[in-house]
């Protein structure tokens, strides 16, 4: 009887331990899953912005059949859309009877791919506006809302120098968009008099300050560079990559048409 009792108590302890740790594990997983969700204090102004931002849709270039054939067997990924586009436009037709023909065509040193290692969001990347309401000495509360005082241009950039920065920026933007599912662009503008109807109460005898910020994604990773050659051997053709190097890189990429609100009473 005592053995049964001890066994029951042991099972009960195990069940309590599982119940104690299960919710925290679930919360941690949920936080990780929703790392790029837009918080409630960040307002979408895409329909209210008095400056019409153009969407920076970077074209995803698919390799042609010839490009796929050239890259077949290559152990290094080529994801640079500019290089893929150039290869797609390349016309190579070696003679099928060109026995013994060999050749190497040097295409230059290129950034081949970008590997994303860390993606975070700074919801207060750059202050863009301040609205204030002085309600001291008043007998009743008032309301304040976001109204953009001046037009603001927010620019992103690479955080360190690198060769072929334009190609690198394209690859980083594509990877960051894929990871976050957010409207990212290296430049976004908030027009003057852009406003939202969201109101914030300022009690009597208080001073309300509504500060607004442009959010941005901080993208960090590694770029692989290599010298690219088109290799011709008889009727066969392929790509060869030599002198491969890697370089760490970071970038700030603004989130288009969004403002982060910080409200304080003084």
TrEMBL record:
InterPro entries: YfkD (IPR025548). It comes from Virgibacillus pantothenticus. This is YfkD-like protein.
């Amino acid at each position: 009887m005592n053995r049964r009792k001890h066994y029951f108590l042991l099972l009960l302890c195990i069940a309590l331990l599982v119940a104690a740790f299960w919710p925290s594990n679930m919360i941690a997983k949920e936080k990780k899953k929703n790392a790029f969700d837009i918080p409630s204090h960040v307002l979408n102004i895409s329909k209210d912005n008095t400056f019409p931002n153009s969407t920076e849709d970077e074209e995803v270039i698919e390799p042609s059949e010839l490009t796929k054939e050239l890259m077949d067997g290559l152990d290094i990924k080529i994801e640079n859309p500019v290089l893929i586009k150039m290869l797609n436009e390349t016309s190579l037709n070696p003679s099928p009877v060109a026995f013994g023909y060999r050749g190497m065509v040097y295409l230059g040193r290129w950034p081949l791919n970008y590997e994303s290692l860390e993606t975070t969001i700074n919801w207060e990347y750059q202050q863009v506006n301040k609205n204030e309401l002085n309600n001291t000495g008043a007998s009743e509360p008032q309301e304040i809302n976001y109204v953009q005082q001046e037009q603001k241009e927010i620019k992103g950039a690479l955080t360190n120098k690198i060769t072929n920065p334009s190609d690198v920026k394209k690859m980083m933007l594509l990877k960051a968009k894929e990871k976050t599912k957010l409207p990212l662009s290296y430049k976004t503008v908030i027009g003057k008099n852009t406003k939202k109807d969201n109101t914030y109460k300022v009690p009597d005898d208080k001073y309300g300050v509504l500060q607004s910020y442009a959010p941005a994604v901080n993208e960090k990773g590694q770029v692989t560079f290599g010298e690219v050659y088109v290799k011709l051997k008889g009727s066969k053709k392929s790509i060869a990559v030599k002198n491969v190097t890697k370089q760490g890189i970071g970038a700030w990429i603004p989130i288009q048409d969004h403002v982060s609100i910080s409200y304080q009473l003084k």
